[in-house]
């Protein structure tokens, strides 16, 4: 997986589908940087949140079980290991299960994984092991995804399968389906829309060398200050872990 958002942070960072070479950048709305709100008792994201490269949730296909189309993004991943990651970090992970969030009438899979180097990794092989060794985490994950948009005036999210977290075999089937969808996207079998397909490895979409050289060199600037209001806790009526 590629880490986009480290655990306990709020900045809504994601792989940009529309930009050349798909960099990770902070999302904006109406010209302002986006942050996820803190819904009591949570602080920021509960896990290292990121995506599986070379996957795509096809918006042209309605999943037969969720009855909703894909969300047009790479497959989302929640890494539950003990170490806090950093944006752009590449982690080798073990797939444990999957939740099917229904976000604005789209299927938005959330793959539950653990870093293979985590001390708990040898003991976690399927979703029931997560509840055994990390009791309460799956319930908290379900709650977080249900309520995290409420402070911004949006309704509570819903889940397919009554919120059940499917096992590792089901999750791997989802990963394979989204990997096949990505291959169809890159081969031209599926319409790309506004997605930038330029990359550094595949011949049919290899990035132009001149454009790559024109990318500004890295500038190791300190983080900009974050407004203190981002730390506010929101108390959601009816929310329960």
TrEMBL record:
It comes from the Eukaryota. GO terms for cellular component: cytoplasm. One of its GO terms (biological process) is phosphate-containing compound metabolic process. Its cofactor is Mg(2+). It catalyses: diphosphate + H2O = 2 phosphate + H(+). Its EC number is 3.6.1.1. The keyword Cytoplasm applies. The keyword Cell cycle does not apply. This is Inorganic pyrophosphatase. It comes from Trichophyton tonsurans (strain CBS 112818) (Scalp ringworm fungus). The lineage of its organism: Eukaryota, Fungi, Dikarya, Ascomycota, Pezizomycotina.
